[in-house]
Automatic annotation (TrEMBL):
<dbReference type="InterPro" id="IPR004670">
    <property type="entry name" value="NhaA"/>
</dbReference>
<keyword id="KW-1003">Cell membrane</keyword>
<feature type="transmembrane region" description="Helical">
    <location>
        <begin position="183"/>
        <end position="200"/>
    </location>
</feature>
<feature type="transmembrane region" description="Helical">
    <location>
        <begin position="358"/>
        <end position="378"/>
    </location>
</feature>
<keyword id="KW-0739">Sodium transport</keyword>
<dbReference type="GO" id="GO:0015385">
    <property type="term" value="F:sodium:proton antiporter activity"/>
</dbReference>
<comment type="function">
    <text>Na(+)/H(+) antiporter that extrudes sodium in exchange for external protons.</text>
</comment>
<feature type="transmembrane region" description="Helical">
    <location>
        <begin position="154"/>
        <end position="177"/>
    </location>
</feature>
<comment type="similarity">
    <text>Belongs to the NhaA Na(+)/H(+) (TC 2.A.33) antiporter family.</text>
</comment>
<keyword id="KW-0812">Transmembrane</keyword>
<feature type="transmembrane region" description="Helical">
    <location>
        <begin position="102"/>
        <end position="122"/>
    </location>
</feature>
<protein>
    <recommendedName>
        <fullName>Na(+)/H(+) antiporter NhaA</fullName>
    </recommendedName>
</protein>
<keyword id="KW-0813">Transport</keyword>
<keyword id="KW-0406">Ion transport</keyword>
<keyword id="KW-0050">Antiport</keyword>
<keyword id="KW-0472">Membrane</keyword>
<keyword id="KW-0915">Sodium</keyword>
Length: 415
């Protein structure tokens, strides 16, 4: 019994690791791409697009739709919980602290968007938000694997940069990809979020109450958002921000292994089920995304980081060396999960462009991965060689990794 419990705990910790989760994500995407270009392609795509509608409730989703519109809510909930922690108790809890990564994030969004429009030459302009996203789990995983010896403030900067980047992405999803908004359903969802927040502060420490009442409200809220025409993954954002900080981190801590082991790999696998077209069939969308992610992100974040560095000198924040900034900026081109979601939303109803976009995202993210890994390894060696690696960019999950006691049930009723 004790041995079984130890194995279960060890397994959970493996799936909380940035390093291991990035390997699982990459493997799932590679498997999807391989299957989509094998003799099993027809069967794999048939499973992805198999209808799983719930007609009495007005839910018309395919199996792949359930992964993108329902399971992915868990990932966005975790992102929102960590974002709230950073904004209230963490590295972004004052305007001055948030300013430096915010400038980097804004330029990191603008750079690839502009480059996409320039390279695309006016083709499929609705795809410009796709390369603006950075995959938090993947980027931190790459840093954990290749960045041992780097100053610890780099992980904080990358985490803050990616979280703010995803916040911008969430806003873009809400503004650009909401169709025929149902005001009544949206109002019902907002009311349910308020009830969720109030109950979370009144239920005390009872895990049964949390699991039943809050879980039930979360499902109802997801259904209301789905019916409202706003993308359903925003449910996770709303609920993650509605919870008190320590409650949110506690819930996210429990959910993170499931997200890393099941939710994100399933989505990566599903989104990567893309047949590779012949070279003469590649559209400007593919080229624009394949270049905008590694180049646009690198240029945008570097410019934003340099501007933020001028502000850092005035605020006394830790300085980031230019070589380190370049390595982090290139790593920011790992769009992957959120970029693939953006691609599905931007080119909904245009399957050919969606396939080209997914292939572009995978190519651009792969280039960022290879170049980012090389630059991080180089910078880590430089810091180790001169004995500057006393504080290192360790593997972990930011705020979630430091909340073991919270996960054990120490979350207060207020916060």
């Amino acid at each position: 019994m004790i041995q079984t419990a130890s194995i279960r705990i060890a397994t959970r910790e493996i799936f909380r690791s940035d390093r291991h989760s990035s390997v699982i994500l990459l493997s799932a995407a590679a498997l999807g791409l391989i299957l989509a270009n094998s003799q099993l392609a027809g069967a794999a795509l048939a499973v992805k697009f198999h209808p799983l509608a719930v007609a009495p409730l007005g839910i018309d989703l395919t199996l792949g739709g359930w992964v993108a519109d329902a399971l992915l809510v868990v990932f966005f909930f975790i992102v929102a919980a960590e974002l709230k922690n950073e904004l209230t108790l963490g590295q972004l809890n004052t305007p001055r602290k948030a300013a430096v990564p915010l400038i980097g994030a804004v330029f990191g969004v603008a750079g690839p968007a502009v480059l996409y429009l320039v390279i695309g030459g006016g083709t499929a302009v609705e795809g410009w938000p796709i390369p603006t996203a950075t995959d938090i789990a993947f980027a931190l995983g790459l840093l954990a694997v290749f960045g041992r010896g780097l100053p610890s403030n780099l992980r904080v900067f990358l985490l803050a940069l990616a979280v703010l980047d995803d916040l911008i992405g969430i806003i873009l999803i809400a503004v650009l990809f909401s169709n025929d908004v149902n005001g009544a359903a949206l109002a019902a969802a907002a009311l349910l979020v308020v009830c969720f927040a109030v109950l979370a502060r009144r239920l005390g420490r009872s895990p049964v109450a949390i699991g039943t009442l809050l879980g039930g409200l979360a499902v109802l809220c997801w259904y209301a958002v789905l019916q409202s025409g706003v993308h359903a993954t925003l449910t996770g954002v709303a609920l993650g921000l509605a919870l008190p900080v320590r409650w949110g981190l506690s819930a996210a801590h429990h959910l993170q292994p499931w997200s890393n082991a099941i939710v994100l790999p399933l989505f990566a696998f599903s989104a990567a089920l893309v047949p590779i077209p012949q070279l003469d069939e590649l559209s400007p969308v593919f080229l624009a995304l394949a270049v905008a992610l590694p180049v646009g992100k690198a240029v945008g974040i570097t410019i934003g980081g340099l501007l933020g560095g001028l502000l850092a000198r005035r605020t006394g924040a830790a300085r980031i060396e230019f070589g380190d900034l370049i390595a982090i900026a290139v790593t920011g081109g790992l769009g992957f999960t959120v970029a693939l979601l953006m691609n599905q939303l931007a080119f909904a109803g245009q399957p050919q462009l969606m396939d080209q976009g997914a292939l572009g995202v995978l190519t651009g993210s792969a280039l960022s991965l290879l170049l980012g890994a090389a630059l991080l390894h180089w910078r880590a060696r430089v810091h180790r060689a001169r004995g500057a690696g006393q504080g290192t960019a360790e593997s972990g999950s930011g705020a979630l990794a430091t909340h073991e006691s919270v996960a054990a049930g120490d979350a207060p009723a207020h916060g």
